[in-house]
Amino acid sequence: MTRTLDPAAPAAPATDSDRAARLRAAWRAAWDQGDVDALNGLLSPGYVRRRGPRGVPQSRDGFKDSIRAVREAFPDLRTEIEDLVEDGDRLAIRWRSTGRHTGAFLGVPPTGRPVEVSGATFARFDGAAIAEERVTFDSRQLLEALGIITTGPGAAVDPDLVRGVHRKFITGVTVVTTDDDGTPRGLAVNAFASISLDPPMVLVCVQRGSSTHPALHRATHLGISILAADQLDVAKVFAGKSENKFADIAWTPGEHGAPLLDGSSAQLEVEIGERVEAGSHTVFTGRVVTARHEERAPLVYSGGGFFDISRTAPLPW
Ligand SMILES: Cc1cc2nc3c(=O)[nH]c(=O)nc-3n(C[C@H](O)[C@H](O)[C@H](O)COP(=O)(O)O)c2cc1C
Fold first, then answer.
1. How far apart are CA 245 and CA 206, in angstroms?
2. Is 108 exposed, middle or buried (0-12, 13-18, 19+ CB in 10 A)?
3. 123 and 204 assigned to the same domain
4. From ligand 1's centre to the CA of 189, what distance in Å?
5. The model's pTM
6. Domain boundary residue, one of 145, 171, 187
7. In this structure, are 112 and 219 located in the same domain?
Protein backbone atom coordinates (compact mmCIF):
# COMPACT_ATOMS: atom_id res chain seq x y z
CA MET A 1 0.00 0.00 0.00
CA THR A 2 1.31 3.48 -0.82
CA ARG A 3 1.31 5.90 2.04
CA THR A 4 1.66 9.62 1.98
CA LEU A 5 3.30 10.84 5.13
CA ASP A 6 2.40 14.27 6.41
CA PRO A 7 5.02 16.59 4.86
CA ALA A 8 4.63 18.92 7.86
CA ALA A 9 5.56 16.13 10.29
CA PRO A 10 8.94 16.56 11.97
CA ALA A 11 11.74 14.53 10.41
CA ALA A 12 13.18 11.72 12.54
CA PRO A 13 16.49 12.62 14.21
CA ALA A 14 19.57 11.67 12.19
CA THR A 15 20.64 9.38 15.05
CA ASP A 16 17.55 7.15 14.71
CA SER A 17 18.28 3.50 13.93
CA ASP A 18 16.35 1.77 11.16
CA ARG A 19 13.98 0.28 13.78
CA ALA A 20 13.35 3.60 15.46
CA ALA A 21 12.79 5.37 12.14
CA ARG A 22 10.35 2.67 10.98
CA LEU A 23 8.48 2.90 14.27
CA ARG A 24 8.12 6.68 14.01
CA ALA A 25 6.85 6.42 10.44
CA ALA A 26 4.40 3.59 11.20
CA TRP A 27 3.07 5.32 14.33
CA ARG A 28 2.56 8.56 12.43
CA ALA A 29 0.75 6.75 9.61
CA ALA A 30 -1.42 4.65 11.95
CA TRP A 31 -2.19 7.00 14.84
CA ASP A 32 -2.17 10.38 13.08
CA GLN A 33 -3.46 9.36 9.64
CA GLY A 34 -5.49 6.22 10.27
CA ASP A 35 -3.43 4.00 7.97
CA VAL A 36 -3.34 1.11 10.44
CA ASP A 37 -1.97 -1.29 7.79
CA ALA A 38 1.28 0.67 8.01
CA LEU A 39 1.81 -1.33 11.19
CA ASN A 40 2.04 -4.60 9.23
CA GLY A 41 5.74 -4.17 8.50
CA LEU A 42 6.49 -3.11 12.07
CA LEU A 43 4.48 -5.60 14.16
CA SER A 44 5.04 -9.35 13.70
CA PRO A 45 1.94 -11.44 12.83
CA GLY A 46 2.05 -12.99 16.33
CA TYR A 47 2.44 -9.58 18.00
CA VAL A 48 1.02 -9.22 21.50
CA ARG A 49 0.26 -5.92 23.28
CA ARG A 50 -0.49 -5.57 26.98
CA ARG A 51 -1.40 -2.71 29.27
CA GLY A 52 0.72 -3.24 32.38
CA PRO A 53 2.48 -6.50 33.25
CA ARG A 54 -0.74 -8.46 33.70
CA GLY A 55 -2.92 -6.71 31.14
CA VAL A 56 -5.19 -8.67 28.82
CA PRO A 57 -3.19 -9.50 25.66
CA GLN A 58 -4.24 -7.81 22.45
CA SER A 59 -3.37 -9.13 18.97
CA ARG A 60 -2.12 -7.07 16.03
CA ASP A 61 -5.64 -6.98 14.54
CA GLY A 62 -7.14 -6.12 17.92
CA PHE A 63 -4.66 -3.25 18.25
CA LYS A 64 -5.55 -1.96 14.78
CA ASP A 65 -9.26 -2.06 15.74
CA SER A 66 -8.50 -0.02 18.86
CA ILE A 67 -6.63 2.59 16.83
CA ARG A 68 -9.58 2.82 14.41
CA ALA A 69 -11.99 3.26 17.34
CA VAL A 70 -9.82 5.94 18.93
CA ARG A 71 -9.49 7.78 15.62
CA GLU A 72 -13.24 7.68 15.02
CA ALA A 73 -13.72 9.37 18.38
CA PHE A 74 -10.73 11.73 17.97
CA PRO A 75 -10.28 12.30 14.20
CA ASP A 76 -7.66 15.04 14.73
CA LEU A 77 -5.54 12.76 16.92
CA ARG A 78 -1.84 13.65 17.07
CA THR A 79 0.77 11.58 18.83
CA GLU A 80 4.10 13.15 19.64
CA ILE A 81 7.06 10.93 20.51
CA GLU A 82 8.79 12.80 23.32
CA ASP A 83 11.65 10.37 23.86
CA LEU A 84 12.75 7.17 22.20
CA VAL A 85 15.50 4.99 23.63
CA GLU A 86 16.93 1.85 22.12
CA ASP A 87 18.73 -0.84 24.07
CA GLY A 88 19.56 -4.03 22.14
CA ASP A 89 16.30 -5.51 20.89
CA ARG A 90 14.21 -3.17 23.06
CA LEU A 91 12.77 0.29 22.43
CA ALA A 92 11.23 2.54 25.08
CA ILE A 93 8.99 5.33 23.82
CA ARG A 94 7.55 8.21 25.85
CA TRP A 95 4.58 9.72 24.01
CA ARG A 96 1.83 12.28 24.33
CA SER A 97 -1.43 12.17 22.37
CA THR A 98 -3.88 15.00 21.91
CA GLY A 99 -7.23 15.15 20.12
CA ARG A 100 -10.74 16.56 20.26
CA HIS A 101 -13.56 14.19 21.25
CA THR A 102 -15.98 14.49 18.33
CA GLY A 103 -17.18 10.86 18.03
CA ALA A 104 -18.64 8.38 20.53
CA PHE A 105 -16.02 6.68 22.67
CA LEU A 106 -16.40 4.12 25.48
CA GLY A 107 -20.12 4.71 25.27
CA VAL A 108 -19.70 8.47 25.78
CA PRO A 109 -21.32 10.64 23.07
CA PRO A 110 -19.08 13.37 21.60
CA THR A 111 -18.26 16.06 24.15
CA GLY A 112 -16.16 18.31 21.89
CA ARG A 113 -13.57 18.39 24.65
CA PRO A 114 -9.82 18.46 24.00
CA VAL A 115 -8.14 15.40 25.50
CA GLU A 116 -4.49 14.82 26.31
CA VAL A 117 -3.01 11.50 27.39
CA SER A 118 0.65 10.68 27.96
CA GLY A 119 2.31 7.37 28.57
CA ALA A 120 5.10 5.02 27.66
CA THR A 121 5.42 1.99 25.41
CA PHE A 122 8.08 -0.68 25.79
CA ALA A 123 8.64 -2.71 22.63
CA ARG A 124 10.65 -5.91 22.13
CA PHE A 125 11.85 -6.68 18.62
CA ASP A 126 12.30 -10.17 17.30
CA GLY A 127 14.42 -9.57 14.20
CA ALA A 128 12.96 -6.75 12.12
CA ALA A 129 9.49 -6.78 13.71
CA ILE A 130 8.07 -6.03 17.16
CA ALA A 131 6.93 -9.23 18.87
CA GLU A 132 5.64 -7.71 22.09
CA GLU A 133 4.70 -4.32 23.54
CA ARG A 134 3.76 -3.14 26.98
CA VAL A 135 2.05 0.19 27.35
CA THR A 136 1.39 2.29 30.39
CA PHE A 137 -0.68 5.49 30.57
CA ASP A 138 -2.84 7.20 33.12
CA SER A 139 -6.36 6.33 31.97
CA ARG A 140 -7.81 8.79 34.50
CA GLN A 141 -6.60 11.65 32.25
CA LEU A 142 -8.80 10.24 29.48
CA LEU A 143 -11.78 9.24 31.64
CA GLU A 144 -11.76 12.61 33.38
CA ALA A 145 -11.58 14.53 30.10
CA LEU A 146 -14.61 12.59 28.84
CA GLY A 147 -16.51 13.19 32.05
CA ILE A 148 -16.68 9.45 32.84
CA ILE A 149 -15.06 10.13 36.18
CA THR A 150 -14.89 13.47 37.92
CA THR A 151 -11.99 14.71 39.92
CA GLY A 152 -12.42 18.37 38.99
CA PRO A 153 -13.68 21.15 41.25
CA GLY A 154 -16.82 20.09 43.05
CA ALA A 155 -15.79 16.46 43.38
CA ALA A 156 -12.09 16.81 44.14
CA VAL A 157 -10.77 17.20 47.65
CA ASP A 158 -9.34 20.65 48.24
CA PRO A 159 -5.61 20.45 47.30
CA ASP A 160 -4.64 22.52 50.36
CA LEU A 161 -6.42 19.99 52.54
CA VAL A 162 -4.55 17.14 50.87
CA ARG A 163 -1.27 19.06 51.26
CA GLY A 164 -2.08 19.51 54.95
CA VAL A 165 -2.62 15.78 55.31
CA HIS A 166 0.70 14.99 53.64
CA ARG A 167 2.46 17.36 56.01
CA LYS A 168 1.44 15.03 58.84
CA PHE A 169 3.33 12.17 57.26
CA ILE A 170 6.98 12.00 58.29
CA THR A 171 9.51 10.81 55.73
CA GLY A 172 13.22 10.71 55.13
CA VAL A 173 14.82 12.48 52.19
CA THR A 174 16.48 10.59 49.39
CA VAL A 175 18.43 11.68 46.36
CA VAL A 176 17.43 9.62 43.33
CA THR A 177 20.17 9.52 40.73
CA THR A 178 21.14 8.02 37.43
CA ASP A 179 24.07 7.96 35.09
CA ASP A 180 22.99 9.75 31.91
CA ASP A 181 25.62 8.67 29.39
CA GLY A 182 28.46 9.68 31.69
CA THR A 183 26.67 12.67 33.27
CA PRO A 184 25.35 12.17 36.82
CA ARG A 185 21.81 13.44 37.34
CA GLY A 186 19.57 13.48 40.39
CA LEU A 187 16.81 15.10 42.42
CA ALA A 188 15.55 15.12 46.02
CA VAL A 189 12.71 12.62 46.52
CA ASN A 190 10.71 11.76 49.61
CA ALA A 191 8.20 9.62 47.69
CA PHE A 192 10.28 6.51 48.28
CA ALA A 193 8.94 3.27 49.75
CA SER A 194 9.80 -0.36 50.22
CA ILE A 195 7.49 -2.66 48.24
CA SER A 196 8.75 -6.05 49.33
CA LEU A 197 11.74 -7.67 51.01
CA ASP A 198 11.65 -10.96 49.16
CA PRO A 199 12.28 -10.13 46.40
CA PRO A 200 13.71 -6.80 47.56
CA MET A 201 11.76 -4.14 45.68
CA VAL A 202 11.25 -0.41 46.14
CA LEU A 203 9.50 2.46 44.41
CA VAL A 204 10.08 6.15 43.85
CA CYS A 205 7.69 8.73 42.35
CA VAL A 206 9.21 11.38 40.11
CA GLN A 207 7.33 14.32 38.56
CA ARG A 208 7.36 14.17 34.77
CA GLY A 209 8.34 17.86 34.64
CA SER A 210 11.59 17.25 36.51
CA SER A 211 14.73 17.74 34.42
CA THR A 212 16.02 14.41 35.75
CA HIS A 213 12.92 12.53 34.58
CA PRO A 214 13.92 11.86 30.93
CA ALA A 215 17.28 10.42 32.03
CA LEU A 216 15.58 8.23 34.65
CA HIS A 217 13.07 7.05 32.08
CA ARG A 218 15.90 6.00 29.75
CA ALA A 219 17.95 4.36 32.50
CA THR A 220 18.19 0.68 33.37
CA HIS A 221 19.34 1.45 36.93
CA LEU A 222 18.81 4.22 39.44
CA GLY A 223 20.57 5.05 42.70
CA ILE A 224 18.88 6.02 45.95
CA SER A 225 20.91 7.75 48.66
CA ILE A 226 19.06 8.22 51.95
CA LEU A 227 20.44 11.49 53.27
CA ALA A 228 22.03 11.80 56.71
CA ALA A 229 21.02 14.45 59.26
CA ASP A 230 24.12 16.55 58.42
CA GLN A 231 23.28 16.62 54.68
CA LEU A 232 20.67 19.40 54.66
CA ASP A 233 22.85 21.37 52.23
CA VAL A 234 22.86 18.33 49.91
CA ALA A 235 19.06 18.10 50.09
CA LYS A 236 18.84 21.78 49.09
CA VAL A 237 21.11 21.26 46.08
CA PHE A 238 19.07 18.31 44.80
CA ALA A 239 15.74 20.02 45.50
CA GLY A 240 17.00 22.88 43.32
CA LYS A 241 17.48 23.32 39.59
CA SER A 242 21.23 23.83 39.25
CA GLU A 243 22.69 22.66 35.93
CA ASN A 244 25.42 20.62 37.59
CA LYS A 245 24.18 19.57 41.00
CA PHE A 246 27.13 17.22 41.45
CA ALA A 247 29.83 19.94 41.07
CA ASP A 248 30.49 20.26 44.83
CA ILE A 249 29.11 16.90 45.96
CA ALA A 250 31.24 13.87 46.83
CA TRP A 251 29.83 10.77 45.16
CA THR A 252 30.90 7.35 44.00
CA PRO A 253 29.47 5.27 41.16
CA GLY A 254 27.80 2.08 42.37
CA GLU A 255 28.50 -1.35 40.90
CA HIS A 256 25.80 -0.73 38.31
CA GLY A 257 26.92 2.80 37.53
CA ALA A 258 24.32 4.78 39.52
CA PRO A 259 25.86 7.77 41.36
CA LEU A 260 25.69 7.24 45.14
CA LEU A 261 26.27 10.16 47.49
CA ASP A 262 29.15 9.89 49.96
CA GLY A 263 28.21 10.53 53.59
CA SER A 264 24.59 9.38 53.18
CA SER A 265 22.89 7.11 55.74
CA ALA A 266 22.11 4.35 53.27
CA GLN A 267 22.45 3.63 49.59
CA LEU A 268 20.64 1.39 47.13
CA GLU A 269 21.03 0.62 43.49
CA VAL A 270 17.84 -0.48 41.79
CA GLU A 271 17.32 -2.23 38.48
CA ILE A 272 14.28 -0.42 37.08
CA GLY A 273 11.28 -2.68 36.40
CA GLU A 274 7.99 -0.84 35.84
CA ARG A 275 7.56 2.79 34.88
CA VAL A 276 3.92 3.53 35.66
CA GLU A 277 2.38 6.86 34.63
CA ALA A 278 0.21 8.19 37.46
CA GLY A 279 -1.12 11.75 37.54
CA SER A 280 1.77 14.18 37.15
CA HIS A 281 4.34 11.59 38.18
CA THR A 282 5.98 8.38 37.00
CA VAL A 283 6.23 5.62 39.58
CA PHE A 284 9.48 3.72 39.07
CA THR A 285 9.51 0.31 40.68
CA GLY A 286 12.48 -1.99 40.68
CA ARG A 287 14.56 -4.67 42.28
CA VAL A 288 17.31 -3.73 44.73
CA VAL A 289 20.61 -4.96 43.32
CA THR A 290 23.08 -3.40 45.79
CA ALA A 291 22.49 -2.07 49.30
CA ARG A 292 24.51 -0.63 52.17
CA HIS A 293 23.88 1.47 55.25
CA GLU A 294 26.03 3.39 57.72
CA GLU A 295 25.83 4.39 61.38
CA ARG A 296 24.59 7.86 60.44
CA ALA A 297 21.27 9.28 61.66
CA PRO A 298 18.95 9.96 58.72
CA LEU A 299 17.61 13.38 57.81
CA VAL A 300 13.90 13.68 58.64
CA TYR A 301 11.35 15.69 56.65
CA SER A 302 8.10 16.66 58.33
CA GLY A 303 5.57 19.40 57.80
CA GLY A 304 7.84 21.15 55.31
CA GLY A 305 10.79 21.23 57.77
CA PHE A 306 13.93 19.17 58.28
CA PHE A 307 14.87 17.46 61.57
CA ASP A 308 17.69 15.49 63.16
CA ILE A 309 16.14 12.30 64.49
CA SER A 310 19.05 11.62 66.84
CA ARG A 311 17.76 14.58 68.93
CA THR A 312 14.29 13.10 69.46
CA ALA A 313 13.21 10.97 72.40
CA PRO A 314 12.36 7.33 71.67
CA LEU A 315 8.99 6.19 73.02
CA PRO A 316 8.88 2.92 74.97
CA TRP A 317 6.67 0.20 73.51
C1 LIG B 1 12.01 17.15 50.89
C2 LIG B 1 11.71 17.14 49.41
C3 LIG B 1 11.10 16.04 48.85
C4 LIG B 1 10.81 15.97 47.49
N5 LIG B 1 10.23 14.85 46.97
C6 LIG B 1 10.00 14.76 45.66
C7 LIG B 1 9.46 13.55 45.11
O8 LIG B 1 9.15 12.60 45.84
N9 LIG B 1 9.27 13.48 43.78
C10 LIG B 1 9.59 14.53 42.95
O11 LIG B 1 9.41 14.39 41.74
N12 LIG B 1 10.08 15.70 43.44
C13 LIG B 1 10.30 15.82 44.77
N14 LIG B 1 10.83 16.98 45.29
C15 LIG B 1 11.03 18.11 44.41
C16 LIG B 1 12.27 18.00 43.52
O17 LIG B 1 13.41 17.60 44.25
C18 LIG B 1 12.52 19.34 42.87
O19 LIG B 1 11.41 19.69 42.06
C20 LIG B 1 13.79 19.40 42.05
O21 LIG B 1 14.05 20.76 41.72
C22 LIG B 1 13.73 18.60 40.76
O23 LIG B 1 14.96 18.78 40.12
P24 LIG B 1 15.19 18.53 38.56
O25 LIG B 1 14.10 19.26 37.81
O26 LIG B 1 16.58 19.07 38.29
O27 LIG B 1 15.13 17.05 38.35
C28 LIG B 1 11.13 17.06 46.65
C29 LIG B 1 11.73 18.21 47.22
C30 LIG B 1 12.02 18.23 48.57
C31 LIG B 1 12.66 19.47 49.16
1. 17
2. middle
3. no
4. 5
5. 0.74
6. 145
7. no
